[in-house]
User: What shape does this take?
Amino acid sequence: MRMKRPNIKKILKGIGKFTLNTFTMATISIGSMGLYLSYSNPTPYIAEYYPNLQLGYYTLETLFADIKYWQSLGYISWAISGGTIALGLLIHIRSIGKLIRAIKASPRAVLNAPVKTYRKLRAIRDWIFTKVTYLNEESAKWKMAFNIAKSPYSLLRALGFSPQMAFSLLAVGGSVGGGVVVNETLLAERNFSNGDAGIYAAPHNIPSQTLESSMQWREENKEDNTLRIVLAATPVSEIRIENVSVGTAYTGSALPSGKVETILIEGTDVSGGTATRLQIGELIFEKSRCKSLTFADINAHTINIIGNASDGQSISQTAGTARMRAIGGGHHQASAMITRGGTYDRIWIDAPTSAVNGKIDKLILSNLFTKGGTCVLQQMDIGTLTIRLNEVGDGNGFATKEFVISTTVTAANWNVTDNVEVTVAEPTTQ
Assistant: This one.
């Protein structure tokens, strides 16, 4: 077995390098310590922690005196300390020329630093923007692909077909593939934001199977297409229903058996229990079409009745003392329930649980196109109630009052303006 011959030159070079680095560190450390001691005497701080310290013949007293002498030298101590540091650097660099070139290069490096930094940042920026642009392009392509794929279903929903009917037509006609059907109907079937009928336990977007079972929904009338929101203990920040047709306003529709209201917003007279009310921060009923529109048993701080046209009206302005009102609930307040577009037999919002008032911070009912039944809002405590730009009438003359603000509606502030009586008949079925 052969022994590898040691490289003496390499070993000596390593020893020399180690010695040089050690000498450099020692001289720089000694010089730095000398500069520090020329400005500050640490002996009092050392005495706090080591009052009996002694290093050889050195005591705290002799150490303090020597440092004081070193400081008394002034420029001499600074020159010695600085020279020691310079010596260490010079020996390490081993060339005055290298030191001079380094000093000369320093200003240029400082001046060039912002430019170099900017170029590096620009390169990083361009790389990020390239990736973001690519991802945006891919996202837009996928969005367009899904919009094209689902367009038959969306068109049928826009024409007023229920999700079930739209699904049936597409399945029979073979207009879409299975993936779109799953995305647009099965996974999203019956939810509030899509405008689907059912009984919703506010603020849930999916119909409550428990409520639908306990309230025997559709058992008496299997074609019941009611949109019902059941309010309980959880406050809801906003409920917004817009751009819908209700009652017999569209072909093939009918009111549920035994019901006379197309729109019913109310507290509840609970049989054998405590009646409930709806507590609402702001209620807006606007731009809607009703056979008759009645407000009763309402306590509000401010009521605005503006620009309504009706085939006979009776507006009683009864003074009240209701306070300003807003509904909060902190972390546990429910988010908004919003639906735009849809066809229903009936819209019903109530609080049926004994002694549990329904609470909504903002309730907006806009562009409700109804026929075949009445619109009734009652049993409420409201901060601000606004009734504006509605058309109400059955075409039976002004003697029959079809827009009614009853004497049980009270407010601390009334604003009633530009409401007119005109001949208004029920609209034709769409």
Summary: The chain has two domains: 8-94, 196-421. The two ends are 105 Å apart (CA to CA). The helical segments are 8-39, 43-49, 60-72, 75-93, 96-158, 163-173, 178-186, 209-214.
